[in-house]
Amino acid sequence: MLTKSSLFLFVMLTSLILCCEQDNDAAAIEQQIFTSLLPEMIEAVYKDPAIYLNFPEVSKRGKIDSEHITTLTSRRGKNEKIIVFISDILNQPDKNDLESIQQIIKTNKLNIHISADKLPHKLVHRIYDNKRFSFKYSPEPSNDDSINGIIYTDGINIFHISVSFSKIQFDENKEYGIMTAIYDCRPKCGIGYVIVVKKESKGWRIYKVFDTWVS
Fold first, then answer.
1. What per-residue confidence (pLDDT) applies to 84?
2. What is the pLDDT of residues 68-79, one digit of tens each?
3. DSSP sequence for 102-118
4. Would the pLDDT of 101 be above 50?
5. What is the rounded distance in angstroms from the CA atom of residue 126 to the CA atom of residue 37?
């Protein structure tokens, strides 16, 4: 017969095992989602820096020195694939995004609770290029341009293109997931998004995408 202390220990161990199984299940589903939807998610958040950065006031700024341009990669070729560097580390949603996430969860009646687990996940699957983009994994975003990838120019601005995602937060039935994404055309622009994915009979799909901040 179990004593009270033995029963308590049994319940705690059982809860811990179940929790670990749920975490492993969520991590496996997360990898499946990125495997199937990553190119589509990049399409959803991408903004062409050559257009996005050239607002009407651009005429007031001087063009980049012609000698400097020769050291950069031009993005003028329409048939050239765009190289997008993707952080292979998935962290918890940033605390500054939590208010937007909670509002989106509430507005869309999603039964999702943000996990307290702060351990990062790592993307491990191979990324396949599509007709528009060439994808490459990179370390977490850094101010060091040599780490973050190829530098482009449109003759006025210089920029490199990278995207990072947070870990996906799921509802209890693993039917909906929510994550943040940052599109970075550093050094002059960055855009924050919240992406909601939904499981359907044929697999996961992007359900909704929300712009949350611009810098």
1. 85
2. 333 434 444 556
3. HHHHHHTT--B------
4. yes
5. 12
